[in-house]
Amino acid sequence: MSLLLALDSPIHEIGEQLFWVHMTQHEILMLVSAPLLVLSRPLIPFLYAFSPSARQRLAVISHTRAFSAVWRSVSAPVSAWLISALALWLWHAPWLFARAIENDWIHGAQHATFFVTALLFWWPLANGAPVMGYGGALVYVFTTAVHTSILGALLTFARTPWYAPYVNTAPLWNLTALEDQQLGGLIMWIPAGTLLLAAFLILLVKWMKQSQERWQYTRMAQLSGLPVGNVK
Question: Among 116, 151, 142, 149, which Cα is nearest to 38's?
């Protein structure tokens, strides 16, 4: 539903005239649709959309060394963090963002990039937090909140509009291009930051729960006279 809201609703068309609506669309893709899709683990149902022969070919490809090596590389926490951050900052470069507004193909590539890199970003958290460690996961989310907040602040406090296409369209909605950009910056900064903060707090609670369980196991082992190292 969130994908339909972002890509097949009036939000998409209005986003070509208002930067803040466009920003809302991107945040839905990256902070709502992507994590929900990762958490739903849709891979097996998705595969059944293909014919048996196609599923078999995909299974063969997925088990090749080359595919496994590439997947391990791009889905590793550091790689996923860097790829998602790079995509976010590059696409908000004024010249590239303007091209996306003016060209439907580039616009589609922008949305696909945001969505796919967001899937990569959320994957280690949904499937590998214990491997990364909850401490690492907290750093992972916190640093993302920091750099996205910096970009949001730059957009909010800019003295001139960054994106030329909105100079002519924002006034149609009784906003100047700069006011429109400031609203978009605030959306990236505060609501998006709040969602990342929520993810941070969820991970923190899980970490505290894990630490408490380990302490309880250790305490039980000590009371029963078992070596602590034997308790997992």
Answer: 116
